[in-house]
Every structure is written in C-alpha cells, then in structure tokens.
Design brief:
By secondary structure, the chain is an alpha+beta fold. Helix content is 23%, strand content 23%. The chain contains 6 helices and 20 strands. The strands form 6 sheets. It has a 7-stranded mixed β-sheet with strand order 1-13-14-15-16-4-6. A 5-stranded mixed β-sheet has the order 2-3-7-10-5. A two-stranded antiparallel sheet has the order 8-9. The longest helix is centred in the last third of the chain and has 22 residues.
C-alpha cells in the first residue's frame, strides 16, 4: 500500500504493520478441533533479541516473565513475545516457544556451552474460554511452537495477517467480534519506524453509540466522508438503529459475563534504553483508550509490550526530548491497529455465543486499504464462519 504522510510529519510504513520494523516477524497458530475458537500469536525478534519492556494496566492480567522486563532486573534483551488466548491456561503456549528457542541456542547464556541458555519469553493472555463451544479448547505448548515456527518461516517485512487469527481467533470487544490488527508509521525527522500489533478483546466498546463510528476513526482522514467536509463518515441512522438492536440481541443470547483484555506489542527500530522502552509501553496505552471505551477495567488485563531493535539512533544529537516523537507515534499506531482489528473481523455464531462483526452490522466504509488474510475492508461483510 502507498505510504501516506500525516499532518504531524509521519507517514505510514510500507505494509502499515509491525513487520515494517526491520527484523520483527509475526506468526499465528490456531487451536485445532471442533468447538475451538482460540489461538496464539508470536512476535519473533532478530537473533540476539531486542530491548523489551511492559506496562500492565488492566485489573485482571494474566502474564508470564513480565517481572524480568523491569529495568532494574538482569535480563537485557528477549527473543520473542507471546500473545495468547486461553486465559491463564493459554500461557503454556510460551513453553513451546521457549523450547524452540532453546533448540537454537537463543536465550540468556547461563553456562560455558552455547547450548546452555534460558530463553526469557514474556507472555500475556486474553480471555476467550468457551467462545467456540468447547471450554477446554485452549492453546498449549504445541500451539506456541506452531506460532513461532510460522513467524520464523515468514519473509522479512511480510504483511501481518489480520482479523480472527492467532491470539485474536476468539476475540470479542464490546460484544463485537475482535481480532488482530496492525499499523506502523515512519518519523520523517529521524526515519525511525514505530509499529504496533494489537489483539482487540476489551470489555469496553470500540464504537461510539451516538454515531456508529469507531472511536479510533475520529480524526483519521481514511474515514473522511465523500462530501469534502473532512468529517468522519457516519453510518445512516437506520443502519445504526438496526446495528444496536442486533448487538443487544447477540449479547443476550451469548449470556457469558464480559471477561476480556486488549494485548499489544509496540515495536521500533529506535535505539532505546530499557527505561525508555517502558515509557513507550506506558504511553501506548493512550492508543487503547482512544479506540476502546472504557479501558483498564477490573475484568480487563490490558497489557502493552515494547520491543526496540536499536537499529537507528533517536536523534543526531543527544536531545533528551527526542523520545517524545516515538511516544506520540506509539499511541497513534496502537489506536489504528485496534481499528484495523475490528474492521478485519468476521461474524461468528455457534454454541459458544453470537458475535457479530462491525462490517456485518454497519457495512463498508470509505477509503480503507485491504488487510492481509481477511479480504478487502471496503468489501461487504463475509458470511459468518
């Protein structure tokens, strides 16, 4: 897709995705079987790892190895980050990634032999138990291994598959079908790339009930109406009313209490310290708040990881404020990634619940590019699966 310059000196990356950060690769895997609606996504770093950090703000998080990312602690770099469904059970997917890395001697060296390593694999989970009908269908070590193998097999810079894949297979956000989305931007002042991958699965809604517009679409020229006014395009009142009724009926039929979580990985090729990476993870939560309302509830586990490969300096000099451009960009790409996730999702209805998609309720929107793996966002909604 063509790069688009923004008013504040940024432009979209080549694929407008996390893999525009050179060296980062993404792989998805799905839990097999009838009644399974869950999966795992792995972000794999270049060999040797990336500086990593995390910021957890949801009231019900499920995580693994996040304490290792505290800037005061020993581990300097990590080789992979795991996002997974299956609630706390699904964190076992990280063990499959850990084993794959160990086999390749990738991890923290703890002995004299190159094979004597301990891979540190931070992970976070979201709640999707039973959404396919089978409560016990959840990711495990085999799912994690399949996801990291898919990441390793991906070509450098390959577009990220979006929609109901990987950790987003069973995602639901505000009663709508959620999923995986991604976005990126390039800072024209420094050439630094900042990208994000988000799994939209929050308790809050991504849709403004007064207008039917996705919260994250406000201010984005991709969603401008065709009348030249520059304002965002609103769905017709009749469409909004029908969508609200359909969503209310779906929530009533599903019956499950909202147990969710939005998961994010922000990546950049900027050279960041661990403290700077942690600041970026914290500011990136602003992007979740722009796209989903409310956020950080007790039954969310909203978690943001940062991965910094260090290929580019932040600035020519030692400007202490140079990080601000990365912080602002991180929030922007997270919001856009969540919008893309919601738009790429498709309806699903079955024994685990009835989850309509945004496109199924509201139809096509103007000016949107295609999304790898889930069809053209300008097209009509696909049949449920």
């Amino acid at each position: 897709m063509d790069s688009k310059a923004s008013a504040d000196g940024r432009k979209d990356g080549i694929t407008d995705g996390l893999t525009d950060v050179a060296g980062l690769r993404v792989g998805h895997a799905r839990v097999p079987g009838e009644g399974a609606l869950s999966g795992t996504t792995v972000v794999l770093t270049p060999e040797g790892g990336a500086v990593a950090a995390v910021d957890v703000r949801g009231g019900g998080p499920g995580t693994r190895e996040t304490d290792a990312l505290d800037p005061r602690n020993l581990v300097q770099r990590v080789e992979a980050v795991v996002l997974t469904g299956g609630s706390a059970y699904g964190l076992d997917a990280a063990s499959g990634v850990m084993a794959w890395l160990e086999e390749r001697g990738r991890g923290v060296r703890v002995g004299p032999e190159p094979t004597q390593v301990v891979p540190v694999v931070p992970a976070a989970c979201l709640f999707d138990l039973g959404r396919g009908g089978d409560w016990r269908a959840r990711p495990g070590a085999a799912t994690g291994r399949a996801a990291v193998e898919a990441a390793a097999a991906a070509e450098p810079g390959a577009p990220v598959e979006c929609g109901c894949v990987g950790a987003g297979t069973g995602a639901v956000v505000g009663g709508l079908r959620g999923g995986v989305g991604t976005a990126s931007t390039v800072l024209e002042s420094s050439g630094v790339t900042v990208g994000a991958l988000a799994v939209a699965n929050g308790v809050g809604s991504p849709v403004d009930p007064a207008t039917g517009v996705l919260y994250g679409a406000y201010g984005d020229t991709r969603f401008a109406a065709d009348d030249g006014s520059g304002r965002v395009a609103y769905p017709d009142p009749e469409v909004r009313a029908a969508a609200a009724l359909r969503l209310a009926e779906a929530r009533e039929r599903s019956g499950m209490p909202p147990m969710n979580t939005t998961l994010v990985v922000v990546g950049t090729d900027a050279e960041l310290t661990r403290a700077q990476a942690q600041k970026a993870a914290g500011t990136a939560h602003d992007g979740i708040a722009r796209a989903v309302r409310p956020v950080h509830l007790l039954n969310d586990g909203d978690t943001v990881f940062t991965l910094a490969t260090g290929a580019r300096p932040l600035s020519e000099g030692r400007d202490p404020l140079a990080l601000n451009a990365v912080l602002a960009a991180a929030a922007e790409v997270v919001a856009r990634a969540i919008v893309r996730a919601v738009l790429a999702a498709r309806d699903v209805s079955g024994p685990g619940g009835d989850f309509p998609s945004y496109r199924g309720l509201y139809g096509p929107l103007p000016g949107l590019p295609g999304v790898a793996g889930e069809g053209d966002l300008n097209g009509g909604a696909r049949p449920g699966r």
